[in-house]
């Protein structure tokens, strides 16, 4: 929904390193991935990159969310969320060489007409068009027989390109006019399938929005990605992730940082302000 469009091994215990307020936390998943960070000292997105810091005290920076345009690898963020299809493998390699964690954006809940694989699913899986997002149509998430192999192919590509994890978008069709009679249980089943497919490929997985199911889904997901919880007074719903020591990557579009940073950083979120088209500029919370 964000991309508006031309937008393990065995029993190994895998750690995600979470740097929020200088505190490292680990969680058992099937892939290693550093998510989140501490204060952001850069003046502009074009500042020169720094080496991967050890802790917030040594200058960790917050995340970068860019789904449009050529990825600016010089942004001194610890974690990058970028588009699966539009980001070349060479860019992923460059970012990882700089010590960055790289997450691939994948729309798992709606079709996108401009994607090369958009015709791989039959029309019966497509529902109504997403409001304000032309060319995107909700999936019937009950059709896991069709959607599971489709998603597996996309997640395979994410792994092959060298990404560390996945931001799975549009996992809340049950709360929208999807064109299907979706229930909360339908969505829970589907979202857990999404998480399992990621973990089977040694990729971490982030729960995007779907705030009404956070308490149920937190055990299945490794971090959260949230849009505009401050604007809509919903940030408290993400507390299960914070209590579990899992990162919350938070972005606001319409509010200035003075309107939300004090609250969200106090909660332990990694908060930034971005333009809604998710181009390069960003304004991290101090």
Automatic annotation (TrEMBL):
InterPro entries to which the protein is assigned, alphabetical: Aldolase_TIM (IPR013785), GH (IPR017853), GH114_TIM-barrel (IPR004352)
Extent of the signal sequence: none
Residue ranges of every copy of the Glycoside-hydrolase family GH114 TIM-barrel domain listed in the record: 62-278
Annotated Pfam families: Glyco_hydro_114
Compositional bias segments (type: Low complexity): 37-58
Region (Disordered): 37-60
Name assigned to this protein: Endo alpha-1,4 polygalactosaminidase
Lineage of the organism: Bacteria, Bacillati, Actinomycetota, Actinomycetes, Pseudonocardiales
